[in-house]
């Protein structure tokens, strides 16, 4: 049986941001990265409270949440995403698109303030003209 450990290290910003200009913090006082992440996880840091998230290729790889790309680059690694906490305001405009002929990248809901895409498998392929599953 596959066991995946999901460890969230919620550090920095939990009691308000530290003074900006410190080593390892951005100009808004948000911690840039995690202190240490377990194997098979990746750190998602500023503008979010740093968290170690499990790597994935599809949502089937995730014990909880969905497989997603966090950020505004489709080249970013895929991680199991359930929630993240913002440390500083952020906005993005990620268009719906195809990652490959069978995978749609669907923008995450903007209501949560998280910038990224849900990775969606398309049974009948992804239409590159619309970025939607066929």
Q: What does this entry look like structurally?
A:
- By secondary structure, the protein is mainly β.
- It has a domain at 56-133.
- Helix content is 0%, strand content 27%.
- It has no helices and 9 strands.
- The protein has strands at residues 41-44, 51-54, 66-70, 78-81, 97-100, 103-107, 116-121, 126-127, 132-133.
- The strands form 3 sheets. It has a 5-stranded antiparallel beta sheet with strand order 4-3-7-6-5, with no helix packed on it.
- Strand 6 and strand 7 form a beta hairpin.
Supply the key terms:
two-stranded antiparallel sheet; 9 strands; globular; five-stranded antiparallel beta sheet; 134 residues; disordered N terminus; mainly beta; single chain
Provide a concise account of the structure shown.
The protein is mainly β and 134 residues long.
Helix count from the secondary structure assignment = 0
E-strand count: 9
What can be said about the biggest beta sheet? 5 strands, antiparallel
SSE-based structural type: mainly beta
Shape by Cα distribution? globular
* Low-pLDDT residue spans: 1-21
Amino-to-carboxy terminus distance: 34 Å
Mean pLDDT, to the nearest integer, reads 82
Helix content estimate: under 10%
Gyration radius (Cα, Å) is 16 Å
Please give the order of strands in the largest beta sheet.
4-3-7-6-5
Strand proportion? 25-35%
Order of helix and strand elements from N to C terminus: EEEEEEEEE
């Amino acid at each position: 049986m596959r066991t995946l450990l999901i460890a969230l290290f919620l550090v920095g910003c939990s009691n308000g941001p530290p003074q900006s200009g410190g080593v390892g913090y951005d100009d808004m006082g948000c911690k840039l990265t995690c202190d240490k992440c377990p194997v098979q996880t990746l750190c998602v840091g500023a503008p979010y409270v740093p968290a170690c998230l499990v790597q994935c290729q599809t949502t089937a790889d995730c014990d909880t949440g969905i497989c997603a790309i966090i950020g505004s680059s489709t080249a970013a690694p895929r991680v199991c995403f359930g929630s993240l906490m913002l440390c500083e305001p952020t906005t993005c405009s990620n268009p719906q698109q195809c990652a490959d002929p069978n995978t749609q990248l669907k923008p995450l809901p903007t209501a949560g303030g998280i910038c990224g895409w849900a990775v969606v498998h398309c049974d009948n392929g992804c239409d590159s003209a619309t970025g939607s599953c066929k």
